[in-house]
Please model this.
Amino acid sequence: MILSEIWIYPVKSLAGIRLAEAQVQEKGLQYDRRWMIVDQFGRFLSQREFPNMAMLEVAIQENSLLITNKLNPKENISVPFQPVSADAMAVTVWDDEVPALTVSNEVDAWLSGQMKMAVKLVVMPETTKRKADPRYAKNNENVSFADGFPFLLISQASLDDLNARLEEPIVMKRFRPNFVVTGTKPFAEDAWKSIQIGALSFAIVKPCARCVLTTIDPETAEKGKEPLKTLATYRKVNNKILFGQNVVAKQHGLVKQGDEILLTE
Model:
């Protein structure tokens, strides 16, 4: 089994970035979902409500992120890693309220123009502790602004199995994984408890329940019924549609595309 793809999503619900290698940290891969767009009440915004967020692409530069409107690449803004405004702000991600910092008034104004509403970009400082669900966390792990857990893993065979049932195949990007694995049978990851990627150990903690975000085409931001309609016919458990596995890291360090994956439990 091989780690075939590595993905991060620096700004929650904006487009992802594929990497050749990444640093594994407690809260997730380095830069993954450390930034988030919030409304005037500090509530997070996502493609679930605002599908056009998929059209905002993110690139990593030396000391900043670059956010670009995919439909008009001349429209872009640089997001400094070190916050300029740095105002403390309580923000809400699902049921969690956690402290964050604003980044810059200039970025807020640009994003507000893109979103056509008043928004702010916040960053999660290292001091912020947001606990992964204690029912499943292995070692009291903290998580970034991701929905629930630091990492998401999906096998390529699982997507291939799904695509064989769809009229039009879809891309893995719809499911926003961090790790894609080749060399398995479809949904083999459902039975895993712990794995090793390269030199690092990870625990598989729970299946990932999928939402309408998977029905948004990452290339066009158009919404449809698939893949949830088809997944519901064979991946529904207790009224939840499951695809992919949530993961926590037992060790921190570097993972690379092409790393061997060993099943340890």
User: Anything to note?
Assistant: The two ends are 14 Å apart (CA to CA). The chain has two domains: 2-28+132-263, 33-123. The chain has a mean pLDDT of 97. The longest helix spans residues 105-115.
